[in-house]
Amino acid sequence: MLSTGPQMRLMRLLSCVTLVLLFQVTDSKKDLKSFCSTCRIITDNFNKGFEITAKQNFGGGNTAWEERTLSKYETSEIRLMEIVEGLCDSSSFDCNHMVEEHEDHFETWWFKRKTKHPDLHKWFCIDTIKVCCPKGMFGPDCSACVGGSERPCHGNGKCDGDGTRGGDGKCSCDHSYGGEFCLDCIDGYFNEVRNDTFSLCTECDSSCKTCTGATNQDCDECKEGWEDDDQEACVDVNECSKDPSPCEEDQYCLNTDGSYSCKACDKVCTGCTGPGPDSCQACASGYQHTEGTCTDIDECSQTEPVCTRENEECVNNKGSYVCFCSEGYEERDDECVQKIEPEKEEESDDDHKCTRGALM
Asked: Whole-angstrom Cα distance, residue 35 to residue 93?
């Protein structure tokens, strides 16, 4: 019997081997998809190169002699090599490696198979080096995707590994569809049409979380912010009618379908029921009710003066007023006192003499 120490070492070794194999399998599946992608790039670029070289020739001066002596350019090895040289970017290792590894297959197809098998992608990627599958198939044996190769995932999703030798064939459903076969509908949608091979999911009414039809009376369950009425239809909950209001004191509540929002009151209000100065519950300081709306109080025109210091004037502004000293006065020790103008210095007789001397 193994001691505890060797047993632990053996368990660790087996765990490491399992992890390595798992990473290898994961990388292998990823590589199988990337191999097909690389092959698709190569064959697409080959077809582009074929079109580009379609109207070219050997490049010499006597095309007729060259074609008669060296064979026609359109089927020549020179044209093939020109096309092959442009299949990959110089920085793409995978592409260049695949071309170098299978260069003889391009020659075989060019000279012997092209007429009978004009689809290079099918002949090279699918049938010859076997890194791709026909559309709607996946995996090492090119098995049909869920729903069949003609309509993978019943036309409502994407098959994992579609067209490659990788993937597991599971469906990744389009928006609004769900389930293993992409025939079910997710919450918020219902099956307008449904059979064993086809499904059409249509959006529920905006009030429904789940439904069986398109109206608010077809809801199985209402969304949050909606509730059943007497006719078992989902109708909007008016959160703004609740007491107390869900909004702050300086806000008003605006109900929306399935929800609500809180908006700031007008600055002339202390509390409000809606937008504007005519929806105030009370007027803010410096404002008063006038014919159903809050308007500015002109403090400067009131009977009792608000600016009480001598030689002081009042200027009204929105919601308040300002007191300031009249022109020619300045504030000093909280009083408006007359400004002291600086005295001008008197000119001396000497200044006049100098001036007259300068003029003579």
From this structure: 12
Query: How confident is the model at residue 71, as a pLDDT?
Result: 56
Beta bridge partners of residue 235, listed in sequence order: 227
Select from 181, 141, 138, 144 the least CA-distant residue to 161.
138
Decide the pairing of beta strands 335-338 and 329-332: antiparallel
Q: Is the peptide bond before 152 cis (omega within 30 degrees of 0)?
A: no
> CA-to-CA distance for 274 and 255, rounded, in angstroms?
11
SS3 for the chain is: CCCHHHHHHHHHHHHHHHHHHHHHHHHHHHHHHHHHHHHHHHHHHHHHHHHHCCCCCCCCCCHHHHHHHHCCHHHCHHHHHHHHHCCCCCCCHHHHHHHHHCHHHHHHHHHHHCCCCCCHHHHHHHHHCCCECCCCEECCCCEECCCCCCCHHHHCEEECCCCECCCCCCEEECCCEECCCCCEECCCEEEEEECCCCEEEEECCCCEEEECCCCCCCEEEECCCEEECCCCCEEECCHHHCCCCCCCCCEEEEEECCEEEEEECCCCECCECCCCHHHECCECCCEEEECCEEEECCHHHCCCCCCCCCCEEEEEECCEEEEEECCCEEEECCEEEECCCCCCCCCCHHHHHHHHHHHC
Torsion sign across C-alpha atoms 305, 306, 311, 312:
negative
φ, ψ of residue 331 to 5 degrees: the values are -85, 130
What share of the chain in percent tops pLDDT 90?
Answer: 77
Q: What is the pLDDT of residues 106-132, one digit of tens each?
A: 999 999 999 999 999 999 999 999 999
Residues linked to residue 157 through DSSP beta bridges, in sequence order:
173
d(CA 355, CA 316): 55
- The Cα diameter of the chain in Å comes to 137
β-strand partners of 213: none
